[in-house]
Write a structure and sequence with these properties.
Radius of gyration: 20 Å
Largest sheet: 5 strands, mixed
Structural class: mainly beta
Order of helices and strands: EEEEEEEEEEEEEEEE
Strand content: over 45%
Distance between the termini: 53 Å
Number of strands: 16
Shape: elongated
Helix content: under 10%
Number of helices: 0
Length: about 180
Amino acid sequence: ESGIGFANADTDNFATAINFSPTDTIKGTIKYSKAGYTDDADYFKTLMPNDGTIRIYLERTNTSPYNSQYNYFSVFDKAQTSVYYGYLGYINAGETRYDTIDLYCRAADSMYFRMDNTSVCFKYKIHYEVLNDFTQVIDQDSNDDFANAVYFNASDTVKGRLDYVNSGGADNNDYFKTF
């Protein structure tokens, strides 16, 4: 596990999001104060290396003295449109909670992660992996209607993806034709 530490880093919006890769583990804190500044949210940016299911692993520890606290975790696509938002349950003082989130049918594209909290301090770790790697599938992006159907022979094997989503939308249909 390679770690990237961002405790109280200035990553409070999309413009200041720090890049990380699937081999990195993000380590950070929320609602910690230093020199009059309180870190309310942390943003991170990654480029999914290939199409597939993105599995995100979260570890969150309530470092405040207050019970029944929660924080929010969000995922956005390249266009900064929310693809996941959740508070993921309550955590008592001093306790750690582990969650796994699967986002299915994601096309290789930029993704943003945001960790934020409403009122108390937390420390966290985030990392992800891509499952169902479809790097060997070459999809015809332009064959979305009859007019753009792709030719193939009876002996050909056609592989593709349907409903994979990126910031440009979803590839809902693939059309093929033969002689």
